Structure formats: structure tokens, C-alpha cells
Amino acid sequence: MPLLANNRFFQNAFDGYILHGRGQCLAGIDYDGGVPATTFKPLQGGNIVVLDDPAFDPVTGRPTGNGFPDPCDTSFFSVLSTIGIDGSILECRDVNLSANSELRFIWAFLPLESHTSICFNSFALFVAYDQDDPGSAGDFANATPTYTTVLGQSKNIPDSSRQNICWQVSCWQPQQNFSGTLYWIVSTGAFAQTNSHCRPSMLLLDSVEVNS
Questions:
Q1: Domain range enclosing 46
Q2: Per the structure, how many domains does the chain have?
Q3: Is the pLDDT at 2 greater than 70, yes or no?
Q4: Phi/psi at 78 (5° precision)
């Protein structure tokens, strides 16, 4: 499923993508991580992707049952000393990019866990893998990314500035022809073993497109 030119703005929801974990396409979403709350709406199309569901229960952890999808395992991913626990992944297979073309996507990382947490550091990544990695079972253990960039970490965004979070633009220009799989990942992450429950962060996507 290559990147579809007629779904650059997610006007056709997840057409061309595979969603792992919780996610939905919405006309907008309120982020109450800051005071006052911030409303995110599409910049170009009719939908935005919300990776990881904004609903959570800070007492018992993630809600389950009643047809609610389970979060996916993100333990193959880490940022410095932060090991992924669970979250959501948006996957796009069979992507072909010519050398020095530009993959451009608009995103926002919305943390809910406080930056003062001594246990948790939720994070978001964009990762590209060559065609043969990872395996068909989604096992990332022996896969080496072609490209990785950290989009955000909850520890790096002070609670007092979260009302100022806005859309960001990221671009990737492969130095040689690329054929493979792209992943947008948002994960709860922990520094150490803990019995506490993290408030999941969200990763929003407004558009994904290629400029030749």
C-alpha cells in the first residue's frame, strides 16, 4: 500500500495505511494538556489522524473491552533511557521515494503525563525501514531503521508551555532511492519498572505527501 496521492490529507481516513492500536480520523480534537485547552483542526483537509485514543482512566490504566481496540506493543522502540511500553503505530508499506525527493508531513505531539514524572517519558517517532525490514510478523528486533527522527518527548515539554503546542512540519529527503515501509509511532515509555499507569500521549497527523 504505497502513499496514495488522493489521500494526502486523510480525506479517505486510513486508506493506504495500516493502523496498529488505537486511532481514528476526526474533524478536530481538544487537547486539555495545557491551560486553557487547545483545539486542533485540519490545516488543509477535512480530517486529522489521532494516534492513541484520548480516552484514558488514570486510576486503572487503559480502558479495555466493549470492542475498544487494545494498544499495540511498542517495546521494540526507545528514546535514550526510555523504553516503549504500548501505544499506536500508523504503517504505510511499499513506499518508493526517489533520491532527494521530499517526504513532508504535518504533525503534533500532545503529552498528557506531566514532565515532572519520575517514571514516565512518552514519546513519538517517525521511522523508515528498507523493504525487507521488519519481518511480516512486525518483529522489529533485528531490523535496523534507514531513518529515525524523534518527534517529541513528554519530559522535554514543560507543563507550563503545553498550551503553546502547535502543528509542526517535518521533511525527509532520502539520499538514495528508498523502497520500504514508513511508521509513525506514539508510545508510553518508562524509565524503570513501575506498577503505576501512564496517561497516554497522542500523535496527530494533518497530512503526508511527497514532493519530487
A1: 4-61+81-208
A2: 1
A3: no
A4: -150, 160
Q: Which of 186, 162, 164 is nearest to 54 (CA)?
A: 186
Residue 132: inside a domain, yes or no? yes
Distances (CA, A) of 3 to 109, 114, 184, 208: 22, 35, 13, 8
193 to each of 42, 79, 153, 172, 190, how far by Cα in Å?
38, 16, 19, 35, 7
How many residues are present in the chain?
Answer: 212
Q: In whole angstroms, give the CA distance from residue 200 to residue 4.
A: 29
pTM: 0.92
User: What is the reported pLDDT for 60?
Assistant: 63
Q: According to the model, what pLDDT value does residue 56 have?
A: 65
The backbone torsions φ and ψ at residue 201, rounded to the nearest 5 degrees and listed phi first, read: -85, 170
CATH number at residue 8: 2.60.120.680
Nearest to 125 by CA among 185, 167, 78, 168: 185
